[in-house]
Design a protein that fits this description.
Pfam family, one: Thiamine_BP
Largest sheet: 4 strands, antiparallel
Number of domains: 1
Protein name: Thiamine-binding protein domain-containing protein
Family: Belongs to the UPF0045 family.
CATH topology: Alpha-Beta Plaits
CATH architecture: 2-Layer Sandwich
InterPro entries: MTH1187/YkoF-like, Thiamine_BP, UPF0045_domain
Organism: Calderihabitans maritimus
Strand content: 25-35%
Distance between the termini: 29 Å
Order of helices and strands: EHEEHEH
Number of helices: 3
Number of strands: 4
């Protein structure tokens, strides 16, 4: 299981607002099976099997192009842990537990 951070940035849009592109990407995510996702103020976090996520990232990368954008920059950060089950919630919980104890 992998946790992946993805940011898809259309370049040269008509306005500085990008929320319409984010919304279109999330419409794609709503239809995706086997991948959990979480919208954050700066990016989207995906959780699932790495092959499925990478395929989905490719699909998301195409969203602004389909809307007429001529240039898109997509940034991907992958956390792929093989020694134990990795989830978005588990990563947050690990930090929260450490916050309860002394350093």
């Amino acid at each position: 299981m992998a946790v992946v951070e993805v940011s898809i940035i259309p370049i040269g849009t008509e306005t500085p607002s990008l929320s319409r592109y984010v919304a279109e990407c999330h419409r794609v995510l709503q239809k995706a099976e086997g991948v959990k996702y979480q919208l954050t103020p700066m990016n989207t976090i995906l959780e699932g099997e790495l092959d499925k996520i990478l395929s989905l990232v490719r699909e998301l990368h195409e969203v602004p192009f389909r809307a007429g954008v001529q240039r898109v920059v997509t940034s991907v950060k992958i956390d792929d842990r093989r020694d134990k089950h990795l989830t978005m919630q588990g990563k947050v919980k690990a930090v929260e537990e450490k916050l309860k104890s002394a350093f």
